[in-house]
């Protein structure tokens, strides 16, 4: 793999399969030139889900709680009344339970996508965590509507179709958690090989 290339984990959550959006998501990631280097369909075990959403990652747990608190503040909803706490970490732990339940509820498609700045590029295509904030043109913006408030009311994780690694550390951890080395493949996409020589012959003349 080139030094500038990255690998990132993408998981199509169970509702992406039930909604028939698998092809649409893959199409969008392929379209920008990212390379699919690993793919499998699995029913996630509780053990894998626990490792994927580790309780030890305080920042991540707290981050989910903060999203709830921001959403509630916007809507003028009192978190203590709704969830009996206004502590971001405690709310995050609650959300994490719903997330584990969601990701283990049905089969998922797990994929590894590779390319320059693949982590950031995939996040851009996927869009904001909260579908109500995800821009049109992003997968979440085009195909989902949900909010922390609605999801928390239903005691479930926000339905935003996709998981995508958020940064390099997360990507490295998640790719090796979900895929063995021999499940990842190397090949070149046509656009990576010299397009001049493809169009005009080896000497670039005809
Ligand atoms: P992501 O990286 O954009 O997926 O967002 P996070 O890593 O912060 O959160 C992981 C997942 O938890 C999200 O994709 C949502 O499905 C869910 N989630 C995040 N924040 C909330 C929230 O405030 N309430 C609920 N119910 N679910 C949330
Ligand atoms: Mg995340």
Reconstruct the topology from this structure.
Elements: E1 5-12, H1 14-18, H2 22-31, E2 35-42, H3 46-52, H4 58-75, H5 79-83, H6 88-103, E3 108-116, H7 118-126, H8 139-143, H9 148-153, E4 162-164, H10 168-178, H11 195-200
Antiparallel strand pairs: 1-3, 1-4, 2-3
The chain binds guanosine-5'-diphosphate (GDP) and magnesium ion.
What is the compact description of this entry?
The chain is 48% helix and 14% strand.
The parts where pLDDT drops under 50 for at least 5 residues are: none
Going by CATH, the homologous superfamily would be Nucleoside diphosphate kinase-like domain
**Helical amount among residues, as a percent range?**
40-55%
Q: Would you tell me the structural class of the helices and strands? A: alpha+beta
E-strand count: 4
Gyration radius, rounded: 19 Å
Which CATH C-level class is it? Alpha Beta
Instruction: Based on Cα principal axes, name the global outline.
Output: globular
Stated plainly, the CATH topology is called: Alpha-Beta Plaits
Strand order of the largest sheet: 2-3-1-4
What ligand molecules are bound, each kind once? Answer: guanosine-5'-diphosphate, magnesium ion
Mean pLDDT: 93
* Percent of residues in beta strands: 5-15%
Q: Count of DSSP helices?
A: 11
Total domains: 1
Summarize the helix and strand pattern as letters. EHHEHHHHEHHHEHH
